[in-house]
Design goal:
Layout lengths: L1 H20 L8 H35 L12 H26 L7 E5 L3 H4 L6 E3 L5 E3 L11 E8 L2 E8 L2 E6 L1 E5 L4 E7 L4 E5 L4 E5 L3 E7 L9 E8 L11 E7 L1 H12 L20
Parallel strand pairs: 4-8, 7-13
Antiparallel strand pairs: 1-11, 2-3, 4-5, 5-6, 8-11, 9-10, 9-12, 12-13
Helix pairs in contact: 1-2, 2-3
């Protein structure tokens, strides 16, 4: 009896510690917040199951440890039906919760047809509308954040990144650093010029493949931590692409709305050291 109580207390204690440790830190993007919330839900489901299984295991070992002759377990139809139904309910919950997140444009993104085939891309119009230059633009109600969205064409090329912006005032292209405003929808049209790459910003929960002649679109909105005027996040290539793969790095700098507007003026005025010639135009959006 004492051993049984000790096992029960130990399993309950482990479960409580796991639940306390599961509380995520304050998210810095809509995307990472959705991922953390999904992980938390799944953890709350997994912990009781793990505790129950381990408790049954310890109880069974303790109860039958001194039994010399093994006896076959009698069939229990009710028990079999119970755990089958319970498992189905759990899997349905996990599938529904995962779909709500993975099906969101901020996580799973939207895949366009080839850049050269805009008519084929329009076949998916029930999900998004086509912006006329090969990349899907999610509908306004699908986008996270508030205000007018910022469109960025993220172009991967051995072994660096280029970011193309289309604004009301003209084209902006930079290399190495992507600058985005806080609390506004940011739509990234990811493509490549030469090879399979993948843009990955772990701390913002962003990851999307980059294919030549093809767009994959993801969206997010980033919130600056309290007391911070700007934050810089590391961007990686997450698909092996050759000898320079490990050095294919970039940064994402999140700034206030005022600083973002000033940055755009500096870029368009030729005052930026990382400005380059725009590679392709995207359809302009108001306020981008």
């Amino acid at each position: 009896m004492n051993l049984r109580r000790a096992v029960l207390r130990a399993t309950v204690g482990v479960a409580l510690l796991a639940l306390l440790g599961a509380v995520p830190v304050s998210a810095q993007s809509v995307t990472i917040e959705m991922i953390d919330n999904l992980n938390e839900k799944l953890l709350y489901v997994a912990i009781p199951i793990a505790v129950l299984v381990e408790a049954i295991l310890f109880y069974t070992v303790y109860k039958y440890k001194d039994q010399e002759e093994a006896k076959p377990t009698q069939e229990n139809r009710r028990l079999e039906i119970t755990w089958t139904v319970a498992t189905a309910i759990i899997l349905l919950f996990v599938g529904f919760a995962a779909y709500q997140v993975l099906g969101n444009v901020a996580i799973g993104g939207v895949t366009a047809a080839t850049v050269e085939d805009p008519e084929a891309a329009q076949q998916n119009a029930e999900v998004t509308h086509y912006d006329g230059e090969g990349a899907y633009m999610p509908e306004a109600e699908e986008l996270p954040g508030e205000g007018d969205p910022v469109q960025v064409e993220v172009v991967a090329q051995k072994y660096f990144w280029t970011y193309n912006y289309t604004t009301d005032s003209g084209q902006i292209s930079t290399a190495g650093e992507m600058v985005i405003p806080e609390n506004r929808p940011v739509v990234m049209h990811v493509t490549s010029t030469d090879w399979l790459h993948a843009v990955h910003v772990p701390k913002l929960g962003l990851k999307q493949d980059a294919f030549p002649g093809h767009y994959n679109t993801i969206a997010t909105s980033v919130t600056l931590p309290e007391g911070k005027d700007e934050m810089t996040y590391q961007l990686y290539c997450a698909e092996y692409c050759g000898s320079g793969h490990s050095g294919m790095l970039g940064t994402v700098r999140v700034v206030s709305e005022e600083e973002y507007e000033q940055w755009k003026q500096d870029q368009q005025g030729g005052n930026a050291s990382n400005a380059i010639e725009p590679r392709r135009n995207l359809a302009p959006l108001a306020g981008a």
